[in-house]
């Protein structure tokens, strides 16, 4: 206690919280009885309440020490609260209950201190209040640190296990244990995902790799919030594969409508979390057909990106025709041959591409290419002379569209192969 001008300095007077002793279970029991613990599972209710009682007593003892020493909550108090929070997280108990217990303890301490310091005036009450605020901050940080460290460690371990399981399913499944077979679904929706670049990835004043990793973590965090169905994923910063359990017995080239609708909403959510467009394609499969379905799904994804179908989920039925004509074979080679005569004249190839993209509008083609309508007409005539197909007639236009798709898909596939090699 400090003396100023022969009088007691009320702001420096220690708070007499004699009721707050570690041996006094009555006050701790009162605090605990007023807490809402209905969210605790039956499996852990009894043990959790005992742990809460100990945590409240620990808080009260720490608050008593802070009040009597005019200082902060002891380190051994915050360490014990942090350990309690870790124990809480290990059992997947809600952190809100623990926070409420800490806040209730501080509230009781503030109430008692306020009543005892009322006669000393506003300065003493203010100082005591600031001590309690600092104590609340220290205890809250201890809870958050202990809980989050355990959740982070558990999440890392679970993610590694899930990635190993996903990789096994995407391969041939031979490394799966009997325990895996007992818990896995018999049918899955295989979703190929393309994560577009976040706008900040191209900023010169930031590291694009860091932005990309943050984008990926946000997507993974969003997936982690889904309890049912449990979505398995194998993702990188530019995309990957999701496996969504389904209950339908369907052919590998079909798609379960209900699962497709749910997956479509999921892709929209992932786009919001990523802060960047997400394009995806989906194919339904039995568990033993996942490798084959994955190959099909990613081929469809290449087509969706190539044809600029836009963000969102595209099902097999949406790209079935394009998928079929891009499969290797005589028909594919024949379709590609339609455009070979235009290889030496890039302006004709660009005119044809634009004309087909504008659904056969010469005016729109002229505006996009910034040339006259007559120039477009002359170029279309030249295309007909070189290819033998008239893009202004419906049958020939379809053949030219198919040729454009197959040729672009083949070029994209060859480019990706060279990049991989």
From TrEMBL:
Listed PANTHER family: CARBOHYDRATE DIACID REGULATOR, PUCR FAMILY TRANSCRIPTIONAL REGULATOR
Sequence ranges assigned to domain PucR C-terminal helix-turn-helix in this UniProt record: 348-400
Pfam families: HTH_30
Protein name in UniProt: PucR-like helix-turn-helix protein
Classification via InterPro entries: CdaR-like_regulators (IPR051448), PucR_C-HTH_dom (IPR025736), PucR_C-HTH_sf (IPR042070)
Gene3D superfamilies given in the database record: PucR C-terminal helix-turn-helix domain
Species assigned in the record: Nocardia mexicana
């Amino acid at each position: 206690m400090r003396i100023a001008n022969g009088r007691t300095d009320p702001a420096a007077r220690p708070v007499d919280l004699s009721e707050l002793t570690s041996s006094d279970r009555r006050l701790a029991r009162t605090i605990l009885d007023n807490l809402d613990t209905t969210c605790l599972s039956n499996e852990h209710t009894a043990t959790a309440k005992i742990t809460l009682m100990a945590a409240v007593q620990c808080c009260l003892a720490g608050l008593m020490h802070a009040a009597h020493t005019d200082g902060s909550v002891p380190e051994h108090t915050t360490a014990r609260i942090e350990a309690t929070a870790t124990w809480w997280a290990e059992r997947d108990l809600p952190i809100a209950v623990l926070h409420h217990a800490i806040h209730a303890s501080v509230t009781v301490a503030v109430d008692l201190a306020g009543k005892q310091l009322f006669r000393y005036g506003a300065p003493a009450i203010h100082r005591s209040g600031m001590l309690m605020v600092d104590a609340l901050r220290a205890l809250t940080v201890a809870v958050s640190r202990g809980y989050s460290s355990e959740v982070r460690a558990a999440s890392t371990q679970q993610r590694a296990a899930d990635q190993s399981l996903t990789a096994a399913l995407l391969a041939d499944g031979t490394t799966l244990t009997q325990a895996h077979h007992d818990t896995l679904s018999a049918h899955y929706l295989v979703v190929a995902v393309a994560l577009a670049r976040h706008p900040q990835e191209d900023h010169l004043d930031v590291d694009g790799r860091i932005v990309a990793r943050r984008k990926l973590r946000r997507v993974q965090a969003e997936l982690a919030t889904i309890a049912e169905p449990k979505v398995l994923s194998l993702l990188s910063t530019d995309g990957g594969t999701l496996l969504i359990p389904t209950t339908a017995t369907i052919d590998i080239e079909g798609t379960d409508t209900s699962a497709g609708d749910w997956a479509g909403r999921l892709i929209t959510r992932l786009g919001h979390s990523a802060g960047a467009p997400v394009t995806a394609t989906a194919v339904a499969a039995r568990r033993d057909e996942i490798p084959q379905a994955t190959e099909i799904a990613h081929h469809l994804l290449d087509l969706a990106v190539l044809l600029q179908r836009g963000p969102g989920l595209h099902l097999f039925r949406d790209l079935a025709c394009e998928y079929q004509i891009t499969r290797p074979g005589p028909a594919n080679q024949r379709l590609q041959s339609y455009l070979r005569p235009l290889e030496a004249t890039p302006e004709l190839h660009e005119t044809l591409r634009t004309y087909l993209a504008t659904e056969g509008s010469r005016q729109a083609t002229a505006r996009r290419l910034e040339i006259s309508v007559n120039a477009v007409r002359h170029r279309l005539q030249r295309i007909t002379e070189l290819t033998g197909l008239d893009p202004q007639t419906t049958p020939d236009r379809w053949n030219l569209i198919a040729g454009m798709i197959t040729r672009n898909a083949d070029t994209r596939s060859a480019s990706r192969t060279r990049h991989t090699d």
